[in-house]
Amino acid sequence: MRPLGVNGGNGFGTLQSFTSRQRNLVQGWGFNRASTRAHAAHARKETAMFKGQAWRKTLVLVLATVFLSGAASTSFAATKWQKNHPRRAEVNGRLANQNRRIHQERKEGEISGAQAAKLHKEDHQIRQEERAMASQNGGHITKLEQRTLNQQENRVSRQIGQ
After folding, report:
1. CA angle 137, 138, 139 (to 5 degrees)
2. What is the DSSP letter of 17?
3. Within this chain, do residues 60 and 123 fall inside the same structural domain, yes or no?
């Protein structure tokens, strides 16, 4: 049986006068209404899935950006090593001054190497205690903790001047 429209047939003309879809139907390439509808439905479904995926990707990107910016601002604002807090700065400044005094006394020969090492060790312990206190309070030390640290620094300071 000859396909419709080929070489005279029923008067539709030659195969070239058909659209490409019609030529595909005539030549039997499997394009019929059912498969075309199924193809269109599949394409709509893929488009809908793509839109859903794009929406999800956008949502994930926005949430990740918000989370990371929030984490970054939190880490900059209240780290456990935030040394620019006034009470911490005062305590750390005193420790640095005592360290300088210990070096100066050792240089001038007023204290021995063993005495300097003992004083440095005590200063180091005070600094570690200050860091531990600050880590418990979001990078700050309380007034009571500052008073305690100052009392410890005063004891070390009196030992330096002897």
Report:
1. 95
2. G
3. no
pLDDT bracket for residue 10 (50, 70, 90): low
Residues 38-62 have pLDDT tens digits of 666 666 666 665 566 666 777 677 7
Read off the pTM: 0.48
The C-alpha atoms of residue 145 and residue 109 are separated, in whole angstroms, by: 34
Residue 160 and residue 55: Cα distance in Å, rounded?
A: 67
pLDDT at 106 over 50: yes
Give residues with Cβ within 8 angstroms of 159, minimum separation 6: 119, 122
Full residue range of the structural domain in which residue 64 is found: 39-77
Number of domains in the chain: 3
Are 48 and 105 part of one and the same domain? Answer: no
Report how far residue 105's alpha carbon sits from residue 83's, in angstroms, rounded to the nearest whole number.
27
Measure the CA–CA gap between 148 and 65, rounded to whole angstroms. Answer: 42
